[in-house]
Amino acid sequence: MDALSPSPSCPCCSFLIEGMFLPWTEDDTTNSIDEVQTSLKDLTISAYDDLMTPTEAWKMIADDAKPDEILLVDTHGHPHLQRGIQYASETTTATDYSAKGVISLTCAVSPLDWKDTLEYASQSPTILPALGIHPWYIGDIIVDKEYTSSHGDDIEKYLRWDWLNELETHLSQHPHLIVGEIGLCKMARFVREFPKEFGGKATALRLQKLVFRKQMELAAKFSRSVSVHCVNAHGLFMEVLRDILNEANDDCIGIDTADKSLMNKRLRGVFPPAIAMHSFTGTAHHVQEILSFEKELLNQEGAKRQRNQKKQHMEESSNKQDGLFYFGFSHAVNHVMCTSDKARRKGTEAVCVVPSDRLLVESDVHASEDVVLGTAGAVAYVASARGEAVKEVAEHTTRNGLRFLVS
């Protein structure tokens, strides 16, 4: 075998996009963070009434496609689990909606499915794997599942840590492996059912934060993107970000403050290269708060205001390559599961304030048969919420998705 050929035993190394047509242009007019201006009071949910179906969206996206064109990038799903088919049916099988032209990320949820995730991804050069521990599955790494003793403030003793070494080994062996699905979730059964005599929800959330932080640090160490689950836990998420940044600032004491480039590089390096907020269910305010944190981290304030319009445009173009946060939306969660007017309005507002160069689409499905239609449905949802054309959304989320996956 040629030394440059991908080894079939290494799924992430077999991930290839060479030779596939990318639907992007040099003159990218996507909005930067500073250009996003939306009048939230004028938003309505009427778009939901005529939301294009996933099947209709896919047919529109695939219409007149070039050979080997990348049509969609699905930045989050769990098709390796092969359960709960949602979009495919007896009349719409996987062969009807071929995955050709669709790049996808399959995310593990626990060390128990890491092997299956890698094996599934090894089946195709257009599938990339992600390994991590989902906040719902912290119980899989609890040492004493019967909770026969309390460890007080020494919460690390509640957990076994062999998984962390295993994850590090996988990251060292597979240079394009992503970390995910990881995160924080106050709705997790693990949190709701953690024994009250051992601290109840408070201790459970501390354990979630600890596991999340360890995985974030490992992703930063290996410079890998992460896919983050954050439900009803925005405050905790921002706490973790602040803790990482504050500790990094302390470590920078002694560095010549005049050498801002070195300091910024040090601070940026303590975070993964890209963080995707998966099936984002936060508010528009949460989006803006997260992006404000990014601005602070990248130290972009002040100087931009002193540049003329031409220089500002050049700076914004380069910053697109340095963006930290992306926001993913799925048809399965953001449309199907959000049925109330309040939830739909909140979702629409959030989608609309995300800069177009930070938008991602996800299938968030649990069966390979659903990847194509699940992702196409996400495109339809985002297009409807933002009042944009389906093909336009497909094209710029494809660019964003590839940038996220190879950050």
How would you describe what is shown here?
The protein has 407 residues and is α/β, with parallel strands linked by helices. Helix content is 39%, strand content 10%. The protein is built from 13 helices and eight strands. The protein is globular, with a radius of gyration of 21 Å. Helix 2 (114-121) links the parallel strand 2 (102-107) and strand 3. It starts with 53 loop residues before the first helix and ends with a helix.
Characteristics of this structure?
407 residues; eight-stranded parallel sheet; 13 helices; 39% helix; disordered N terminus
Strand content is 5-15%
Instruction: Indicate the percent of residues in helices.
Output: 25-40%
> Sheet with the most strands?
8 strands, parallel
Q: What is the terminal-to-terminal distance?
A: 28 Å
Taking all Cα atoms into account, the compactness measure Rg is: 21 Å
Question: Number of helical runs?
Answer: 13
Beta-strand segment tally: 8
Strand-pairing-aware structural class:
alpha/beta
Quote the average pLDDT. Answer: 83
Name the helix and strand elements from N-terminus to C-terminus, one letter apiece.
HEEHEHEHHEHHEHHEHHEHH
Low-confidence stretches: 1-8, 22-47, 300-321
Strand order of the largest sheet: 1-2-3-4-5-6-7-8
Shape descriptor? globular
